[in-house]
Amino acid sequence: MNVIIKNGHVIDPSNKVDEKLDILIAGGKIVKLGKAGSISSPDAQAVDAAGKLVVPGLIDMHVHLREPGFEYKETIATGTAAAKAGGFTSVCCMPNTNPVNDNRSVTEFILSQAAKEASARVFPIGAITKGSKGEELSEMGELRAAGCVAVSDDGRPVMNAAIMRRAMEYAQVFDLLVISHCEDSSLSAKGVMNEGFVSTELGLRGIPRSAEDVMTARDISLAELTRSRVHIAHVSTAGSVDLLRAAKARGVKVTAETCPHYFALTDEAVRGYNTMAKMNPPLRTADDVAAIKAGLKDGTIDVIATDHAPHGMDEKSGEFDYAPFGIVGLETALGLSLQLVNEKVLTLGEVISKLSFNPASVLKIEKGTLQPGADADITIIDRDLEWTVDASLFKSRSKNTPFNGWKLMGRAVRTIVGGRV
Amino acid sequence: MSLSSKDLLGIKGMTAEEINLILDTAATFKDVSERDIKKVPTLRGKTVINLFYEASTRTRTSFELAGKRLSADVINISTSTSSVVKGETLLDTARNIEAMKCNIIIIRHPCSGAPEFLSTRLQSAVINAGDGFHEHPTQALLDMFTMREKLGKLAGITVAIVGDIAHSRVARSNIYGLLAMGANVRVCGPPTMIPQGIEQMGVEVHYNMDRAVEGADVVMMLRLQVERQTAGLFPGVREYSRFYGLNRARLAGAAKNALVMHPGPMNRGVEIASDVADGTPVILDQVTNGVAVRMAVMFLLSGGTKAEA
Predict the structure, then answer these.
(1) Which CATH superfamily groups domain A3-53+375-416?
(2) Interface predicted TM-score of the whole assembly (ipTM), two decimals
(3) For A306, which of A62, A252, B31, B102 is 20 to 30 Å away at the CA?
């Protein structure tokens, strides 16, 4: 069934397109783009995008889909439904499932579940080490052959530098991106929030910014040593931003992502022992937020990803110390990221890039563009739609968000995966 | 006048007026414990639950006596022998207790924020008997009561708090209370035990104990809390007691007739030399005053006003 998207304001940053165009889709691919009204396709289903933005389908390269093993928090079906609602046509799912995705059978299970039930494309990320224990390399060749696009032990750091070095060397054989969760667990110890004045007042154990910075520095150095590609996950500190900026200036093959909560909130959000503000790395200070924004603006931070981490309400209820780390993010990411345009931190095109083309190019997957021949993964955004976040309406199985009640402007109104409207 | 909140969760945010109300009310209850028949009918028919998730001798007994001397029915729950060992959550535990129609729940818990969590979900008055390293309001109140009784005032006095400030709820509550009452507060310990940003509360930070104690009207020693420490905060008890322990020589640098205080239990020979501990009765006065202060708190939270006390 052919589809024609009419009258939309098309923004395709990688092809420098920013104008009113119609898009013709056939066989799940983009056939052509043309000035509004110039494409005739009488048998095509028309989608009217007047007054809306039409952009490459958004890609979230850091999501926890929780299946297999933690289906009470989220499944591939519910997580991808949340993705689609948030405007994402592709997600990469982290391997800290149960069992850990460190072998072909788990990867194949995830992909077969996705084929049956997913509303968005699923790209699995395999583990760096067996069981993500940080001791022995996983069989990366097998993981790549089974369909993984990257490796990460996310949730945990690879504490042993020698193992991380070997992982970076070995991953190159299969051109697998190594995604690093930067945290020195001897410094973060039993911390539950950023170490600072707020943690002192609340009487909670803190995670110092150095816990992230020392590992960012380490992994940059290892990337230089091994001449490999490394991607730093969920950057939260000014220190990491400074290290990344200097590393890129030296030509190190390092990329980085941050999450909307690291530019929308500070550790003040924890006051009142708000478990919805508990995640790892934790919310930091206003200085860090400013540095994150500067890093987004000057390109030091390439990607905005969500680190969507669903948890059951019972788990997040009760003593702050015992609540698991993490918040959901798929359904609020776009609205929060668009605020950066209002704040003049990024242009609209830059926000779109950081949510589509940039993650695609970091992962080396052919997505994030709207040229003829590309997959018809398209997101239609109503930039002027004011809406209030209501967690009870989330498509995600979990509702653990600190943004409940926030008024945001801009929302995906239609998410097209492979030409299916 | 009465207290502004249905609960006592912490000293932070309390006004000098509220603190004075509690201390003045405690003064009138103190003599009840001196009588032969240590009983007044003030809270007769009220039910008080001590819900202790952490071991305690002093605080729990003090709250129990305070409740009983006010004629309340007091029940002690120690979670090691309750359904908490079967995995019952904090909220379910508290709700079940409340369903038995209790007026006051006194909670001590290893996690900061646990009393606050309960206070917004229960109708009962919640009294914080110590939560993690956050606050221990009745301890600070009895400490201030003791200081006021012995020194005649709180405004303008200098109090040095020495020890593991980072992990101390007693330190935090005392800092908030003493600053609200116009005292000067110095905190002292090795840098490993001084939490980030504490100077923003308005206290002086000292790493040198002789300097911290110099001219102080009160020296409050905190127990070296071995069970709350992660490795590496200090090299050992020998060095700690040498540089951060209170002995006669160091005490000589404080003000004449300075008070030596300790929330208890003491590690004799570690943070406080035995002869100093035995040479100062104030530490035991703190315990006596604790019952009176806790009687005052329970009375005021039950709707009592100062005039009735």
Answers:
(1) Urease, subunit C, domain 1 (2.30.40.10)
(2) 0.94
(3) A252
